[in-house]
Specification:
four-stranded parallel beta sheet, Arc Repressor Mutant, subunit A, 2 domains, 46% helix, alpha/beta
């Protein structure tokens, strides 16, 4: 069965090398290394070591490097969630790399319906399975998605644009607020939360 390894990477390649070694590699498998957009000699050495290790096990397996700006958390979550959703049997490891990227990867796994990710502890070197929190992005209705896509806006603006009563629009908005996808500003303008932005982007992608 084909599988895809997706791992955040810093200076130390040992966790992903160990994971690949234990899970094995077959023709058609893929390895994606997620690291900082800012290059560092130690990271480049780690990438090269992983490429050499993978080549020795199965030379047909490709190793791709995805370089992201760790400060762009929301954008990274969307990029990584799309990668995970397109992957065949994804195996996620968040042991290495900058904290901004490991957090983005964990959240991307949550948005993608992955039930667990792997992490190697720094103190004992033991690999543990970390449970994720499943976000109900699939539970957003078409009407809710359309309202999200029109934010920021006031109730009156949405009512006029959608041809719905203000009470109906208010109910939809209140539900989106309860779901954590939208929030209401003091000036009565509703806008997307960061979670709402991710959910909207991923539903548009689907």
């Amino acid at each position: 069965m084909r599988k895809t390894f997706i791992a955040t990477l810093g200076f130390d390649q040992s966790s992903i090398v160990r994971l690949i070694g234990e899970k094995g590699l077959s023709r058609g498998d893929s390895v994606f290394l997620v690291t900082s957009v800012t290059p560092h000699p130690k990271t480049e050495n780690a990438i090269q070591s992983i490429r050499e290790f993978v080549s020795k096990i199965n030379s047909s397996v490709r190793v791709e490097v995805l370089r992201l700006d760790e400060k762009a958390l929301t954008d990274n979550v969307i990029i990584l969630a799309r990668l995970i959703r397109n992957a065949v049997n994804p195996i996620i490891d968040v042991s290495g790399g900058p904290k901004g990227l490991t957090l983005s990867m964990f959240l991307a796994a949550c948005f993608s319906g992955i039930s667990k990710v792997y992490m190697t502890t720094e103190t004992t070197g033991e690999r543990v399975e970390v449970p994720t929190i499943l976000f109900p992005s699939h539970a957003v209705s078409e009407r809710q998605r359309r309202v999200l896509s029109m934010l920021p806006a006031r109730v009156s603006e949405l009512s006029r644009e959608l041809g719905l009563s203000k009470s109906t629009v208010s109910r939809v908005l209140n539900l989106l607020v309860k779901k954590g996808l939208a929030c209401k500003r003091p000036d009565r303008v509703f806008e997307l939360t960061l979670t709402g932005k991710v959910v909207l982007e991923l539903n548009e992608f689907l």
